[in-house]
Structure formats: structure tokens, C-alpha cells
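Troubleshooting log. The previous structure file for this entry was overwritten by mistake, so regenerating from the original sequence record. Sequence copied from the archived sheet and checked twice against the printout by T.R.
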Amino acid sequence: MFSVKDKIWFLREGLFAKYVVSLVGLVVFVLAVNGSIETYISYRATKTTLTDAMSEKAEATAKRIDQSISELERQISWVTRASVVTLDQRRADYAQLLNQVSAIAQLSQLSGQGREVLRLSRTQIAVSSGTDFSRDIRFSDAVARGASFAPAYFAGNRPFMSISVAHSGFNAGVTVADIDLRFLSDFLGDTQVGRATFAYVVDPRGQVLATSSRGPDIAKDLAGLPQVAALLTPGNQPLASGKDADGASVLTAASIVPKLGWIVFFEQPTSQALAPIRDQLLRAALLIGLGLIVATLAGMVLARRMVIPITALRAGARRLGAGDFNHRIDVHTKDELEELADQFNSMAGQLALTYSDLEAKVVDRTRDLAKSINELKVLEEVGRAVASSLDLDAVLPTVAARALEITHADAVLIYGYDAGRRQFNLVEADGINKSAEGRHLTIDEDGNILGRAAAKGEPVAIADLTTSGDHVLRDIAVEAGFHAVLVVPLVDQQGVLGALVVLQRATGEFPQSLIGLMRTFANQAVLAMRNARLFTEVDHKGRELAIVNSVVREQAEKLQEQTEQLKHWNRSLEERVEKQLGEIERIRKLERFLAPQVAQLIASSDGHDSLLDSHRREVTVVFCDLRGFTAFVESTEPEEAMNVLREYHAALGELIFRYEGTLDRYAGDGVMILFNAPIKFDDHTKRAVKMACEMRDQIGLLTQKWRNRGHSLGFGMGIALGYATLGQIGFEQRLEYAAIGSVTNLASRLCDEAQANQIVVSRRVYGAVEPWVDARPLDDLVLKGFNHPVLAMEILRWREEVDNIVDAAAARRRK
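Regenerated output below.
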């Protein structure tokens, strides 16, 4: 029987409490889920119905407001007809419109210049006030669009807006009507809005223009409400819920008046809209409470029927756990619990039998454990011997003696392996006199059990040597009185080191546990041998390193001397590099403003003096400019003209530098290029003409591109050959390298005569390049500044294959 304490625990924390809580929890969960789903569905349906109804009302109201504003615009347009020409007629029309339309508070006529001509309200008339409305948005938008709707404004709490309509005819003026927007509240009456709903209209700034009886005050700023802010922000979607002016939650629907940007809101307090949901939640709570009571009672009844047999099983299990295997559990429930009790009783009988067998097995296992502990002690002693010494003569005897002790064998032999001679040499023996029989001191690898074990890398055991094949070790062992042998190879990843041999006088198989133990001994022997060899190698390497160290020290002293020399040379090299870098930087800066050849002459001390002196030399002069550029500059924007010049100069500059011409100057679209000055070239005329042909092709592509952008530009060139005086011109603060002579004037005049995409050259130039070009003669040209007609030719194309002039120039500079 249970004690009172066990019963209390079972009721509070045992299966009884679990069954009751589980059943109650399941019922409550099902009822709660069902109530939640029904409440959610009802909530969504109610919210959707209310929102759809308010949306329909908002859209209808927005349409009515839009129609009313359109009707006001139409009525105002009536007084703007062109048939009215006198001020009295206009005033009569304004008075008639004020009488007919109560929403219009005031009408004003503005002249075509924006001056007020007439203002008529219900209380006053003003004629020719002269007020200037030319900058007023109501006037400017009406003139531009024909009709304008100005933003709403407030006079106190009264909302107004202005509708401006332009008169018929050119510069006929504008009529501005001030509309009293209080009529909008007529669209938001209680009959249209509903008993529990309120509505209001806001302008694009969020200010209330009209409201229902329960809505917010007129002129109140509602831009901070979430539903209003969502529609005032472009791209946002309308919200289905929001806040009213007092911060209470509301369901909301809205529609926009397209013409004015006003927003019509219909809203209902959430507390009123969702009142049926609260009633449904109350019913669900009552149902859950009833289900909780019924489930508790049912759970207690069912749990009690299961607790009694389970209690008996629990008590029986405790007694079995305490060692009372004679106890039997008495349960009669005719179900699985009774079958479980029978299983417990059967298990108690089997445990009683098993317990006696376990006591005998424990004795055997204790004996085996003692043996294993002894083996571990032996292995530990061998490990300490291996770790404490690198001398094989001190370690191997310990290994052999402990192997003989732990295996209970009659003899243990340890062989080393000589890879050069392919022989096993006896290095240690225990249980046998290794000098008594000389034949077993050295054994060849081939044809014996030692070589076979080393080749396999696995131990080889022979239970009876008399029945095994002929080999040296068998004969030696049998003659010494041994009839069973175990050979364990001493190998590692680097190769064979030897073999460990265990001999027994009696025949019989070696146990697998013994073979595994001897593997461990073999590993210890391998470690000892490998450590000894490593020690020998390290000692030898140490002596070699001592010799090398002295050599390295001598070399280090020499390297120190060489390092000092290198530092001195490095300082000299740095000074030279720094000087050369400075000269290169000066040349780069000069090349931005001067021709590269002139810049290099100025930067070098040798060329500077010769450049200052005037001298006479034959040069080829190239002039080129754009046709129609002056008209283009006058008709286009300065930025576009600069873009065209940049593209033009970039294309020319690349070819000038490639053919090593000297860019003398820019003059807008005009460019002057010298060849054979200041650097001499034997083929300077050929270079100039060849460059001109490539320039014509390159600029031709650009003119096509400019033509696609609407610019009509052409490209012409003139080339002359003759003698010129070269040197500096200018004054002290500004000097330039230039060529003076009739040849430059001739090249310029030839360029002036050239048509678009035409290269005009003097006869002397043609004579220098005649073998390489196709040309046609031109009529004798009468040029300004020349007394006689000039014979000229037009270069049509270059016949020779294009030379790699840049590479040739580079090769010449290397020479």
C-alpha cells in the first residue's frame, strides 16, 4: 500500500495529474482554436463589409464634388464669352451669376496684363482698382491652361478656393471666381454618411475643407494622421485603419477628387464597428469555461482507473530494483497493464538466475584485468627505457627481458636489418646463448621466415617447426630444443629495421592477444632503433654544421664588406636617378605647353643655347582648320563648341606626335605644324604629306559624327616647303619658338584656298612626294601677299604602304 506522501505526489506530479492536465488542455485548446478561427473570420468579414461600404460612399461623394466643381467651372465660363465687350455688360453678367450660384462669393476680371479691371461681390463693387495680379498663380495658370483651380484657403474657419477661367480671344483677360466651400458639407449630411460613420474632406495639405456633424473641425490640420499622411505621400497605398483627431482607432476608406487632389474620408470608430466581435468572444469564453469543467471531471475519472494498477507496477519495480527477486506483482485489469505485470514477474525469475552467473563471470574478469594491468606495467617500463636512453645496448636488453617475462616464452631474439647486404643480424637475445651457435647470428633475407614477415609487414606464427618448410631459423631453433616460433617484423614508414622472434619449446598456437601484445613490443623496439639512428645522424650532421658554420662566418665577413660597397653604389645611383627624374618631370611639364622637341631642347643644357640663336633652315609647314567653324560658333552654345574643339585637337595631336612634327601654335580651329625644326629629318616633307592624308581620314570620321549632331563642318589643309628663320620671338617674360618666312604665309594661304576634305600643296611639295601620292593640278592660285600666281596641287591619296614611323624614330634614338 502507498503512504500518504506517495499519494499526494501521485496526485500532484504523477500520471494522475498528467492525464487530467492533458485532457483538460486538449479540450481547452480545441475550443480556443475553434473560437479564435470563428472570431477571426467574423472580424475579417465585418471589417471588409464596413470598409467596402465606406469606400463606395467615399467614391460617390468624390464624384459628386468633382461634378459640382465642373459645373461651377462651366457656369463661370459663361461670363468669359467674347461677345461681352463693355465693362457694364461684364458687370451685369457677374451680377446675374452671383444671384444664380450661391457658392460664388466674389468675381474679379483681370486684363490681359494681369491688372484688376472689375471686382464684384455680394457686398461691394470695385472698378479699375489697378491691382497687379500678373505674378499671381491664378492669373498665370489660367492664361497658360485656359482654366485654373487655386489651392483652398481659409478666412477664419470658412474655406474658400479660386477658379480662374481665361476669356475668349487673344490677351482678353481672366475671370477669377472665389468659391465659398461650405456647400461641400451638404454632401456629408447624416443621411448620406450614416448613423455610426463620420466623414470629412481634406485638401492636399491635410486641412479639413468640409465635415459631417460628427467629423473633425473645419480648417483643422489632419496631415499627421496615418491614413491622411499615407495618401498625401505620392506612391503610398491607402490604409484600411487609422486614428481619428482624438487618437482613437478607426476603420477608414478614402477616395480622391481627381481634378483638385482633395481626399474624401469616411471613417467609423473601431470600437463601434467591432462590437459584434466582442459578443462573440464572450460566448467563446463561456464555452471554454464549460468545456474546462467537463474535461476536468472526465480526466479525473479516467486517470483514477489507470493510476491504481500503475501504482502496483511502480511498487513492484522498486522491490525488484532493491534485489527482492522473489516478489510478484498482482494486477488483474484484463488489459496491457496486466500483461506488463506478468512480464515483470517473468523478468524477476530470470534475474535471479542471471545474478548467480554474474558472480562467477566477475571473478574471471577480475583475473583477466589483473593480467592486463601487469602487461601495461611492463609496457610502461619498456617505454620509460626507450625514452630515457638513445643507446641500443641499454634499451634492447630491457625490451627482450620484458617480452620474455610477459609472454612466458622460453627465448626472445631481436634482429637488426642491414639493407645494403639484405641480411638480418642478431643484436640481442634472452633465454638463449647467442654465441653458442654461430649460424643464427647472421641470416639472409631470402628464403627464411624473417624475410617473409618483413615483406608482409605482419607477424608470422608457426605452431610446430618440425612440420614447416626448410629455412635457416627452423634448423637452428629445432637443434636448440624449440618447436614453436613467432616472428614480428620491426618496420615503420621508412622501411625495415629488423625482427622480434619469440621461441617456445612446446608446440602450440600463439593466442591473438599475445600476437597483439608483441606488436606493441615491436613498436617500442622500432622506436628505440629509429631514435638511435637519428641520434647518430644528428651527431654526424652537427659536426658537419660546425665546419659549415666556420665557412659561413668567413663568407659573412666578405658579404659585410660587399654590403658596404653596395650601399655606397646605391647612394650614388639614387642621386643620379633623382637628378634624371627631375629632368624628366621638367620635360613633362614643358611638353604640356610646348612641342615635345622644343621642350626637350629647353630642358637639356646643350640644346638651350642653340635654340636661342636664330638660324635659317628648310622646313615643311602644314596649316589646317575647320570649314564653317565661325558660323558654327555663332549659332551654338560655347560648351558644345569647346567639346568639338577638344575632339578635333585630340585627333590632330595624336598624329602630330606620331610623325614627330612640331606643333607651333593653336589659333582656335587653326593649327600650324612644322617639320624639320627643331629636329632635322631627311624625309620631313614626306612625313608632313603622309600625316596630312591620315588627318583628312581621321577628321572625316569626326565630321560625320558632328554632322549627326547637327553641325556642318569641313576640314581643309595647306602645305608649303621652303626656307624660314627659326628661333625665339616675344619678350623677356614670354618667349616662344617660331618660324618666320614666306613659306609659313604660303602654307596659310593654301589652307585658306582648300575646300572641305581637300589637301592643297605647293608644286615644290608635290615634287618631293610625287612617287608616293596621287594628285591633280589646280588652277593657278592668286594668293593675298603674293605678286605672281602660285602653282598648286591637290593630294588625292597616299599610295605607299603605311610605315611604322614611331618604331623607326625609336630605333634612330637608340643609335
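The radius of gyration is 59 Å. Archived copy saved in two places this time.
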